[in-house]
Amino acid sequence: MLHKPALSRSSFWFRVAISAALVGLADLLFFNHAPGTSLGLFAFVVLGGTLFSRKDLLRDRRAQGFVFLGTAFALVLADRPGLLAWVLFTVSVSVGALSSRVGPNETAWGWAQRLALNWIFALFGPLMNLLKVSRLKRGRGGMSGLTLLGLLIMPLVGGTVFLALFAAANPLISNALSALSLPSLSGQNVVRVLFWCAVLIGVLSLLRPRWRRPFLALPERRIANPSASLTTSITLSLIVFNAVFALQNSLDLAFLWSGAPLPGDMGLAEYAHRGAYPLIFTALLAGLFVLVALQPGSDTARRPLVRRLVVVWIAQNMVLVASSLLRTADYIEAYALTRFRIAAMIWMALVAVGLLLICWRMLAGKSAHWLINTNAMATLVVLAVVSVVDLGAVVAGWNVRHAREVGGRGVELDLGYLHTLGAPALVSLVELETTTDDVALRDRVAAVRQDILLNIQRRQGEWRGWTWRDQRRLDRVDALQRNRALSAPAPGARGWDGRLLRTAPTTGAPVAAPLSVPLTSQTEG
C-alpha cells in the first residue's frame, strides 16, 4: 500500500525545526573536527529525526527494512567511521524515505534515478517548500510571502533612511551603531555557511523527499529474425574466441598453475604482474560481447551450437579470472599486500559473478532489469562487508607476518607504507616490536609506532574524534606491553620509514624527533 503524506504548515515548520537542530549538531560535531564515533551518533540522530517527522515510514514494510539496514550502518559508523559506511547509510535511509510512495516492483535502475533526482531537487527544496506554503496561505485567504515582502519594503527602507539621518545628528546613536559588528566574510565563515547548506540539503532530502518517476527506461532489444550472415559471423567469432582463450589458459595452466620454470630470464612475479589487469579487461570485453550480440529471446541466442559455444567461452573466462586472481596472489607473495591489491582481487571476483549472471541471463531468458538488480545486490553486499572489515589492519598484519626480517618469503618490510596506513597498522607494529630480536629493526619500528600511537592518543583525547575501534587498539597495545615493554626510539630526525637521517647528539636528554614527510614508501600498485 502506498502512503501519501500531506504537507501542512505545522509539519513544514516542524521539519524545519528538526533540520535546524541537525545542522547545529553537525556544526558542533564536525566543523573543523575529524569525525569519530560521533559520526555514528549523528547518524542515529538523523535516523531518529527522520522517523519522528515521517510516521509513514513505520507503516511501510519495505521502508522498515531499509531503516533497519540504516541502523546497522549507523552502528558501523559508530565503530569505524568512514566515507563508504556513510554513503551506504545515506543510500539506505534515502531509499527508506522514498519507499512509501514507490511501487513494490521498482528496479535497481529505477531506484538509482529516484535517488539522483531526490538529491538534485533537494538543492531547491527550501525554496519549493516556501512557495508551497505561500500557495496554501493564499488558498485559505491568508497573506502570501510575496505580499508580506511588499508590505515590509516601505517601513524597512524608510526606517533605515531616518535612522541614518538621526545617527548623523546624534553622536549617541552614531556610537551605538558603530559598536555593532556583523560577522566578517572570512574564508572560514564562508566555508561554514556552505557546510550548513550541505547538511541542510541532505537532511531535507530525508524529511521532505521529492518523489519523481524514473525518466530513463532500459531498451529491451530483441533480434527476432537476424540475417544468416550475422548468425554465421557470431558463431565464427565464438569459435575463434574460444580458440584464442584456450591458448592463453593453456599457457597459464602450464606455467602459472603448475609452477614450471618460465623460458628465458622471465620470473614468475613479472609474468604474474604483467597479466592480471589486462586479463580482467579481456573478461569484461567478453561479457560485453555476450550482452550486445546475444540478446535473450533472439533466434541466435536460441541456437544450440551458439549456446554451447557461449557456455564454453564463459567457462574459459572463469578460468581467466581465476588465473588473474592467482597472478595477483603470487605477486603479493613475492612482494607485499596493499589495500589496492585487495580491492583489485575483490573486483576480479565481482567480474566473475557478473560473467556467470550474464551467461545465465542468456540461457534462462532473463531481462536486463534482472541482470542489473542481481549485479547491484552482489556489489552492495561486497561494499557492506568492506565497510566493516578494516582492510588496513589486514594488510599490516599480513606484511608483518610475511616480511623477510621475520623469516617470511616476502620482501623487506616497508615501514613507510605501514606508517601511511596509520592507526590500522598499530597493533601489528607493536607485535613486531615486542617479538623481534633485531635491534636495528626494533628501533625503526619503535619510531614509526611512536608517531602513530601519539596521533591516536591525541585523537582519542578529543571527544569528537574518539572511536571504539581505536580504543580497542590501545587496549590491545596495553595487553602486549605486559609481556615486553615498548622502548623509546633512539633520538634523532627520522625518515617516514623510521630510518635515522642524521647522527643523534651525544649530550642532552634523549628526545625523539618527529618523523619527516615520506621519503620512500611502497605505492599501492
Question: How are strands sequenced across the largest beta sheet?
Answer: 1-2
Strand content: under 5%
H and E order: HHHHHHHHHHHHHHHHHHHHEE
Give the averaged pLDDT, no decimals: 81
Net shape = flat
Distance between the termini: 51 Å
Number of strands: 2
SS-based structural class?
mainly alpha
Give the proportion of residues in helices: 55-70%
Low-confidence stretches: 1-7, 508-513
How large, in whole angstroms, is the Cα Rg? 31 Å
* Largest β sheet strand count, sense and barrel closure: 2 strands, parallel
Number of DSSP helical runs:
20
General description of the model:
The two termini are 51 Å apart. This protein has a two-stranded parallel ribbon. It has 525 residues and is mostly helical. Mean pLDDT is 81; it is low at 1-7 and 508-513. It contains 20 helices and 2 strands.
Features:
1% strand; two-stranded parallel sheet; 525 residues; mainly alpha; 2 strands; disordered N terminus
What's the quick description here?
The protein is mainly alpha-helical and 525 residues long. 69% of the residues lie in helices and 1% in strands.
